[in-house]
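P.,

For your records, the input lines for the assembly:
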Amino acid sequence: MPTSLGAIVEALGGVLSGSTETQVTRLASLSNAQKGDLSFIAQARYAAQLSTTHASALVVPPSLQELAAARGACIVTDDPYLYFARLTQWWAALHNAPAQPEIHPTAQIHPDAQLASGVDIGPFAVVEAGASLASGCRVGAHTVVGRRAVIGANTLLYPRVVVGERCTIGERCIVHAGVVIGADGFGFAPSNRTWVKIEQLGAVRIGNDVEIGANTCIDRGALEDTVIEDGVKLDNLIQIGHNVRVGAHTAMAGCVGVAGSADIGAHCTVGGGAIVLGHLKLADGVNVSAASVVTRSIARPGLYTGMFPIDDNAAWEKNAASLKQLNRLRERLKAVEQAIAQATEPRKTP
Amino acid sequence: MPTSLGAIVEALGGVLSGSTETQVTRLASLSNAQKGDLSFIAQARYAAQLSTTHASALVVPPSLQELAAARGACIVTDDPYLYFARLTQWWAALHNAPAQPEIHPTAQIHPDAQLASGVDIGPFAVVEAGASLASGCRVGAHTVVGRRAVIGANTLLYPRVVVGERCTIGERCIVHAGVVIGADGFGFAPSNRTWVKIEQLGAVRIGNDVEIGANTCIDRGALEDTVIEDGVKLDNLIQIGHNVRVGAHTAMAGCVGVAGSADIGAHCTVGGGAIVLGHLKLADGVNVSAASVVTRSIARPGLYTGMFPIDDNAAWEKNAASLKQLNRLRERLKAVEQAIAQATEPRKTP
Amino acid sequence: MPTSLGAIVEALGGVLSGSTETQVTRLASLSNAQKGDLSFIAQARYAAQLSTTHASALVVPPSLQELAAARGACIVTDDPYLYFARLTQWWAALHNAPAQPEIHPTAQIHPDAQLASGVDIGPFAVVEAGASLASGCRVGAHTVVGRRAVIGANTLLYPRVVVGERCTIGERCIVHAGVVIGADGFGFAPSNRTWVKIEQLGAVRIGNDVEIGANTCIDRGALEDTVIEDGVKLDNLIQIGHNVRVGAHTAMAGCVGVAGSADIGAHCTVGGGAIVLGHLKLADGVNVSAASVVTRSIARPGLYTGMFPIDDNAAWEKNAASLKQLNRLRERLKAVEQAIAQATEPRKTP
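Structure tokens returned:
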């Protein structure tokens, strides 16, 4: 379904250089774009790709307007990356008009559940007693909304999500397949060399505009709730322990693990595979690099890293062996320094 | 539903200081407790919080009895944390009386499956031919119990669990949503630069009183079984490879990976995100810190760690760069030591 | 069901030493084998186990033929491990004859889906509009095949798999329970300290003979597709970000995370828990050790490692503390070297 540049600019703004009638059939990356495609250049430093891309039209920053216009149609905007993000949303809405909402006849909806108007529920979904779904919610196939759970307006639960008893999700959230919200937190008291379960009596509270990636788990709190604030973005296969707080607009990449009762500030980022230990506090604006382990609270915004640098295996083996003697090396260095100090001292004051 | 301290002490023991008629309406943490709440102080070193908490009643150790009694009602017991664990269980049983067991009409139960009395099966669950569910089992919505699988008495499978063919689970286990028990182990023989699948003919055997967290995977053995012994506690998103043994009462935090044929002793703990390589043996009582990589067998109990310390990124970059030359630094230090030894030797024996 | 060695050799080749009538009832590992079992010895260096195993028959390399034949029946073949892999396949086919394919009456198949002959679909599976299943496909219970998704011939989707809209899977693939193919990639543009979603318009394309482990996630591309080439083997709980390419016959162990747009060559291996950062290129034949973090492109085949060596915790603490001063130590060493150079220089040229 071709779309004109005029329609795009009318919907999303930006200054068009070229004909409003120019048609584009696909959004594409610079390097893969073909004739008929619309692509974008986020920053002036990628200007060299202007001459190699086959895209028929480009979204560019003002600094590239002249060069881009010389080669063909372009839309000029201050933040092409953001423009392109909005364009993907507009494009998806245009090309994937959502079906009329329906309650699939195979879905099991408890008579005590409350469903607002315009709710869409897929095959084999289960909505338990006392659960509440606000208007515009979409519940995918096989998704289970537990007793007294609350789902906010226009939230999308993909197929095969579990929302546990009493957990709440805000508005306009997106929860991908396989997510488990509200499994028990990992809490046990030791007794006679065995573990006695601490029932997890809290729940999970998720704000508005949160996105949660596939197979990610957010545990319910032990006594109080686990809290995910507005605008948080979690990638796939993330583990959020009980009683964690994730502050507003914090983003975490895949495979991150956050242990119980960690308190993570707003506007943080956590790189893929990083681990945050329990009962720590991260200030707002902390950025943790991929695969780093946060073992202490961090009070100041900034970028923090702890990761063994990769090397060819033979070099790594030698350095790792030396690392196991590093403290001893430090002592030996100190001894050498003292020997030199002693040796040189008499000369100074003969 | 308020509960009297008298009823609690009658059920769980402990010495009550204050009126048996005192009512509590909620269990809460010290810092969040409000009037009407019951909280606990695990150890004398938290005594300062006695004066700041708003809890109406406290569970305390004998050493805090006097201070706690001075501020209000308290239950005195040797191990408040354990007492509180049992209290959460009692509380949950009191407030969440389980529904009458039923076989949901949408569940697909193969006529050759064996169901004991008092089994509860949720909507859309599938129980295949030859599977056996002992009395008091609960099988959640969408859970699949494969052919000839065996589930012990009073075990709870949450929604959306898969128990593969021939796998067995003991009594009183709790298996959270999304768990996959008995997927194929990862076994391939190389041939002409491709991989030839080794069919995984074993199964998974899980003991009694095991808890398995959401989206955790336990693979079936290649020839013999993967074994999880009694009382093991696994958190979410853990990977247990084929033919692993996890010894009794061992606990693992989230995101741990255990490679094939690792043999982990009893009463071990493995911190979040740690990796245990394959074909290793860990003695009983080994504790592995979070995010550490076990690359060799460990024969003695104790705490083991291997983790790059986190730092601000600029400091990390410098230290990581130096680390890649560490073995060279060690050689340079040795050369310096020799130079000093040579320089000082003549003075000793002039 | 006992099987004769003659039947095995007839099916799989190899030179039998002993009676074709010898019956074996089980395949077993050397150390667990009992009377009646068939086991294998992959390499001559395990020859000592010849005298301790209780197996009734063995698959051995030519170098062990004499020793093995002296103790009982054996099958001689150049690559016993590969032979045993094929034997497990033959054995599984013999003992687990697949049921007649059927479309379970509870499955929801959209009238616009295309199903070839011999397709098997389990209870509560969902096949959406425009999806296409080639002949011999098996779709497990609760599995969802999204709109316009394509599944190749003889591919097996275990229960509870999600294949998203427009994603394609080749022939003879095996996809284990809980896998999510085609969830949205993790893409957001920052705006006013919040995140604006980039709709993920690409899909996932998976080649032939690919195996994907339980609860693994492969995200759809942002604009173009995420690509998994022929013969790739992925273990459990792996995260593959959007627009990643995984080259043919590459294998990854459990808990690996691959960030967006990483381009991984053919015939690579990635150890368990390793992380590959985004927008990197790994050449063909690169082997990454477990738990290592790939932070830069790797242009040459070989083994690469970066992992803090595990140690007892006290030793680790000292070495980790020194590590945080490593760059300073290096500077101190340099100063010492200079001091020595100065001290020794005057003697040379007095």
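Two observations worth noting. The mean pLDDT of chain C is 95. Chain C touches chain A through 73 residues (CB under 8 Å).

Regards
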